[in-house]
């Protein structure tokens, strides 16, 4: 009888350990609201460089749990998004890596945002885009004096990218500001 009980305990232990689910790291909800939105969300930007409006619609978003490489013991969620218009660049793509912060890559202005933010990203209480005022904005702001390159990207909660500006050697490369948006939080 004791052997049967011992056998059942060992069998139960093996069953539980085999069904153990992996723990996945994710972008915290606090920062998801800056970057992740439901399908159908849309943004209209004004490109002052060419005096043109540009709109994008989020068609598809999915999250995939991945393990970056064999040297990393942590699994992370990676988000991939598809848009109808890529003129304004891939809005956001999260990066799977083996550090304590998640990375969000913005294809338009070469911004790599970490969540929680690290320099050159900072949290700004108030940010204006013309007459629109946004609160608690994440701002990516760098200046490379060697290449004479300046990059500013600003993201508002429950809105997404509100401004992106980049110059190189005094020439404006990117200059987008948000005009209208219709978003649903992820």
Provide structural commentary.
By secondary structure, this protein is mainly β. Helices cover 13% and strands 52% of the residues. It contains 2 helices and 12 strands; from the N terminus they run αβαβββββββββββ. The longest helix is centred in the N-terminal third of the chain and has 17 residues, at 2-18. The N and C termini lie far apart (54 Å). Residues 15-20 have low confidence and may be disordered.
Q: Please report the number of helical segments.
A: 2
Radius of gyration: 22 Å
Uncertain stretches: 15-20
Question: Into which percent range does the helicity of residues fall?
Answer: 10-25%
The shape, in one word, is globular
Q: What is the tally of beta strands? A: 12
Whole-number average pLDDT?
76
Task: Note the quaternary state here.
Answer: single chain
- Lateral strand order in the biggest sheet: 1-4-3-2-12-11-10-9-8
| SSE order, one letter for each helix or strand | HEHEEEEEEEEEEE
Q: What is the structure about, briefly put?
A:
With 186 residues, this protein is mainly β. It has 2 helices and 12 strands, in the order αβαβββββββββββ.
Give keywords.
186 residues, mainly beta, 3-stranded antiparallel β-sheet, 12 strands
Please render the helix and strand layout as text.
Blueprint: H1 2-18, E1 24-25, H2 29-35, E2 42-47, E3 52-66, E4 75-83, E5 93-95, E6 102-106, E7 111-115, E8 121-129, E9 132-144, E10 149-156, E11 160-168, E12 171-182
Parallel strand pairs: 1-4
Antiparallel strand pairs: 2-3, 2-12, 3-4, 5-6, 6-7, 8-9, 9-10, 10-11, 11-12
